[in-house]
Amino acid sequence: QFPNECQLDQLSALEPSHVLKAEAGRIEVWDHHAPQLRCSGVAFVRYIIESKGLYLPSFFSTAKLSFVAKGKGLMGRVIPGCAETFQDSSVFQPGGQGQQGQQGQGQERQMGQGFRDMHQKVEHLRTGDTIATPPGVAQWFYNDGNQPLVIVSVLDLASHHNQLDRNPRPFHLAGNNPQGQVWVQGREQQPQKNILNGFAPEVLAKAFKIDVRTAQQLQNQQDNRGNIVRVQGPFSVIRPPLRSQRPQEEVN
Amino acid sequence: GLEETICSARCTDNLDDPSNADVYKPQLGYISTLNSYDLPILRFLRLSALRGSIRQNAMVLPQWNANANAVLYVTDGEAHVQVVNDNGDRVFDGQVSQGQLLAIPQGFSVVKRATSEQFRWIEFKTNANAQINTLAGRTSVMRGLPLEVISNGYQISLEEARRVKFNTIETTLTHSSGPASYGRPR
Q1: What is the pLDDT of residues B48-86, one digit of tens each?
Q2: What is the rounded distance in angstroms from the CA atom of residue A163 to the CA atom of residue B86?
């Protein structure tokens, strides 16, 4: 897209050029117009998620490779068409006829499945983990540790997977970015909303079969928390125990 | 060896046969896709196609193309279409009718609702195996997210999150007319 973009006479170490502050962390973006990044065809982002911070689901039009530089946490990706293989049926008691059993039967009718919740795979993250994310796949992170979770990501803007322009363009499913996509020229003054915000609430209500008030809630219009929010209360998503959390097996 | 390979490669397929539909709901319509699994030459061209035909008030649930741009050409009828960009702005909100073209970039979310007796369109996609991701429905991104993520992300109760996640059981096509089942699970 840029003629002579790799005619580099000098290289320099780069610091982030934009910082997006959120309720429970910040997102630091390097200037992808910097000559060496433009030549490489990549953009670079650093996510700093505080303890109990949740980076709300978003996706890119590019492939993304991430590295956990510090901390630990949880990550979920939603891959189109894949089943919800993590399922919690703990509300059921085998043969139970008590209150919990009745509650479970009600929820079974409600969901048609018999599970309290079910969702796609959730993975534990720790320092050193490297995460590949295909374009268009929504991803979220949660910091369940006591220190900040720091994740750095490279976005392959020049790959044929990215069929938009050479700008990093996050699509947010939830939350918002009041500062806007300041790294995209011409967008400096526009706050970035989540993608549900763009649809009429009545359309969302019909698509999700919910009331219009809840549909408006999905648009996060009165929400100033940014894209990393603080989780109130427990974050009890279904996930397998870590190896170190498993009970010691008895040896024969 | 060209005669039995390149020269004889199958280059044609028909997308107008409802009996070959990939998504079919008698009351709502059908959708058929043509990608490199059906027609291998498309792998070389890096293109694919989708044919849709829906009846009045049928809705194609909101979705985005994960790995392709799309160009939608209306062959019959009319529909109301909304398109949302990466900034969360509605960049198209209007009627499209026979003979009109609408380009939908990668990642942009789109919802279509037929406003005429029949709405039929052809969509060309710039990937041999274009993939969509839906926002609502049984195979949607919402179904893949834990309730806690939905609840914290939208500041709604777990019960409301459960409705958002589970109320729509369809995957692609749904009715858009009539009263929504406000707050009541289907």
Answers
A1: 999 999 999 899 999 999 999 999 989 999 999 999 999
A2: 14
Reference B105, options B80, B81, B83; nearest CA is B83
- How many other C-beta atoms are found inside a 10 Å radius of the C-beta of residue B18? 12
> Which residue in B155, B166, B181 is closest to A217 by CB distance?
B155
Query: What pLDDT, in 10s, does the model give residues A142-167?
Result: 999 999 999 999 999 998 899 998 99
Report the distance separating Cα B74 and Cα B54, nearest Å: 12
Is A227 touching B (CB cutoff 8 A)?
A: no
Q: In whole angstroms, give the CA distance from residue B104 to residue A196.
A: 16
Closest CA to A131 of A52, A175, A209, A67: A67
ipTM of the complex: 0.75
How open is the CA angle B25-B71-B173, to the nearest 5 degrees? 15
Dist CA B154 CA B143 (whole Å): 15
What parts of chain A have a pLDDT lower than 70?
1-3, 90-115, 186-189, 244-249
In angstroms, what CA-CA distances link B121 with A129, B33, B39, B62, B95? Answer: 44, 12, 20, 16, 13
State which residue of chain A sits closest to B184, comparing Cα positions: A210
Q: Concatenated DSSP letters for B114-169?
A: E-SSEEEEEEEESSTT--EEESSSTTSHHHHS-HHHHHHHHT--HHHHHHHHHS--
Grouped pLDDT means (10 residues each) for chain B, 186 residues: 75 85 94 92 88 95 94 93 93 93 92 96 92 94 95 95 94 76 36
Asked if A217's CB is within 8 angstroms of B160's CB, the reply is yes
Contacts of B183 in chain A (CB under 8 A): 210-211, 214
